[in-house]
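hi! just following up on the protien thing from before. the input was this:
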Amino acid sequence: MTDVLADTSIWIAHLRPGSAFTALDRPLADRRVVTCGAVAAELLTGARGDTATVLRSRLRGLRWIALEEPADWFDAGELRAVSAARGQPVALVDTLLAVLALRTRAQLWTLDRDFEQIAGVAPGLDLRMLA
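and the predicted 3d structure came back as:
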């Protein structure tokens, strides 16, 4: 089965106390969710105290994918340049997630519509918009 690279918006919806968002439940149970440093850093930016400790533990339990330097940085820069040339600038972190998903053939899950712009310039990106 295909791995799932969940972006920060998916994790926030999943981790929100009392949330009815269950989309990640099955992939997590099947151990198909992968993560990366950018998602972890964004999530931990808003976490404090015990919440941060629990979050770190959960993230450590996932499979991590790392950037391949310099190739992934070059690919991200090229995607951003093409998107910007079309009048649709995109965030660097979002572009890096797309590059990781492309290279590892993971399905990129998000609630963030900005990824649709990236998908428009990244043939082969397996993007799943959940809202």
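The mean pLDDT is 96.
The two ends are 22 Å apart (CA to CA).
cheers
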